[in-house]
Amino acid sequence: MINQLPDPLICHILSHLPIKEAVKTSVLSPRWRSLWLWLPSLELTCWKFPNSNAFMSFGDRFLDSNRVSCIDNLKVTIDKDASHLTSWIDAAVKRKVKHIELCWHRLNKCPELPTSTYTCETLVSLKLYRADLANAKFVFLSCLKTLHLRSILYPNEAIFERLVSSCPVLEELVMAISVYDNAILSRVFSRSLKKLKITINNFEHSSCSGVVIDAPLLSFLSINDDLSESLVVINKMHPDAKLDISTSYFMRVFDEETISLKRNSIRGFLSQISKVKDMKICRDTVKLIYQYSKLEWLPQFSYMSCLNATLLYSGLKELPTFLKSCPNLKSLVLVCYGSCDAMSFQEINQISLSYKPECLLSSLEFIDFEFRCRCGDYVPLLKIVRDKQSDYSPEGYSDFQCDFIYEFGNDGVCCN
Question: What residue ranges are annotated as transmembrane (predicted)?
Answer without folding.
Answer: none
